[in-house]
Amino acid sequence: MHFEPLTRSILLELRHRGYNMLTAKSTETDHNPTWYPLSVPDISDYLLKLDYNLSIDALQQPQILVIEDALMPINDDQLEGEVFIEDNYHQGLQEKIQQYDKHYQFSSNPQQYNFSFDPQRILIRNHALHCGDHILYLKYLSLHYPQHVIDEMCDLEDVTRSLLCLDTKQAQEWFMTNNIAVMQSDIWICDEDAILKIVATQEDDHIWSFTDDNEELMNNLMVPKDILSLRDIFWIDPRMK
Questions:
Q1: Cα–Cα distances in angstroms (integers) from residue 148 to residues 107, 115, 124, 161, 194, in the given order
Q2: What is the phi/psi pair of residue 34, to 5°?
Q3: Residue ranges of E strands in 10-102
Q4: What letter does residue 107 receive in the DSSP assignment?
Q5: 3-state DSSP call for residue 202?
Q6: Contact status, residue 175 vs residue 229, Cβ threshold 8 Å
Q7: Are 63 and 3 within 8 A, CB to CB?
Q8: Measured between alpha carbons, how far is 17 from 240 in angstroms, rounded to an integer?
Q9: Which segments in the chain show pLDDT lower than 50?
Q10: Which residue in 213, 216, 178, 214 sits closest to 197, CA to CA?
Q11: What is the pLDDT at residue 4?
Q12: Of the four, 23, 176, 194, 224, which is 20 to 30 A from 111 by CA?
């Protein structure tokens, strides 16, 4: 993965890859935004949901750039910021699917898995959140879990708008500010792409016991102080359930 200056040629490349939008967490006053590509099934529907969420939470004001609109007559000097580019992103996903399949055998025993725990679905969802390829996840759901398409795609877009990427110091401060007691990963917690969600806060009336489950490749539970020793970058779903 790397970052490229936003140019017309980059927009053309992203459109060729199937992306139709760029989004940035920064506000419109930021003249050097960091853009992340998105591939959503319906741009108008996505923007309507975004407007609705902004009417509720005015603090969430991401920048949005529709690639097709940006490709209308425009010079490179009118484009600002850098774009996150995932290198060989499909190849990386396929390699992870093969790795996890060796552990879970979901290709040869699909009947053992359902929507709640389908390793391949979780891997594709993780990939969609990192790479913005929502359409790939939609295709998988439509084929295997059509009854979950609407709710799950809405949830994916909600996470996309709120997903945090923090360094160690920022993550430590965020854990302390929000009194986080336990986090859970989607994929293997030692993987730098693992997305963490809140399982418990310190106010919860629950005693957690932990087993050495890090040999498992999904749904690992861990306390913040241990998570902070794993890597330098942390992807966090900040929504409080």
A1: 21, 8, 15, 20, 23
A2: -100, 115
A3: 21-24, 34-38, 63-66, 82-85
A4: T
A5: coil
A6: no
A7: no
A8: 34
A9: 56, 58-59
A10: 178
A11: 86
A12: 194
